[in-house]
Amino acid sequence: MSEPLYSYDELSDTLSIAFTIGEHATGIELTDHILLRLNTRDRRAIGITLLDYSLLTQTTEVGQKSYPLTGFDDLTEETRALVIDILRQPPVNEILVLSAYTPAINQTIPIIAIHPIAISQSS
């Protein structure tokens, strides 16, 4: 599939983005509202599900919201590395923006935001 397939369910406020259709995937919960579906064997993204999409994409007076990757706490080091690698590559990095929050010089917390271009394409 060359272009992602966007499917929005207004009743549940859920946006599903498919990169590949009909392929077995493992779901990785990045946050309480962002699910990344992966083919772990081939090390590639199958899709993304955004729950409470309208809340995730609201902006504040200082800009776009970002969310800590709370789901990382439950992942093995190997799976974390795989997810970080996939988040940095197309097509995922065209939808989700990975960055970090550094509350202290020796502490880094990975965070994610929804790419503004992805928001406008799904509308």
Comma- or semicolon-separated keywords:
alpha+beta; five-stranded antiparallel β-sheet; three-stranded antiparallel β-sheet
Describe it:
This protein is α+β, with helices and mostly antiparallel strands and 123 residues long. The protein contains three helices and ten strands; from the N terminus they run E-E-E-E-E-H-E-E-E-H-E-E-H. The strands form three sheets. A five-stranded antiparallel beta sheet has the order 1-2-5-4-3. The longest helix has 11 residues, at 77-87. The two termini are 20 Å apart. The model has no long low-confidence stretch (mean pLDDT 91).
Short synopsis of the structure:
With 123 residues, the chain is of the alpha+beta class. Helices cover 18% and strands 41% of the residues.
By DSSP (H or I, 4+ residues per run), the number of helices equals 3
- Give me the count of strands: 10
Question: How many structural domains in the coordinates?
Answer: 1
Please identify the structural class as seen in this structure. alpha+beta
**pLDDT < 50 stretches:** none
Q: Shape from CA axes?
A: globular
Largest sheet: 5 strands, antiparallel
SSE ordering = EEEEEHEEEHEEH
β-strand percent reads 35-45%
- Give me the side-by-side strand order of the main sheet: 1-2-5-4-3
Helix content: 10-25%
Radius of gyration: 14 Å
Distance between the termini: 20 Å
Mean residue pLDDT = 91
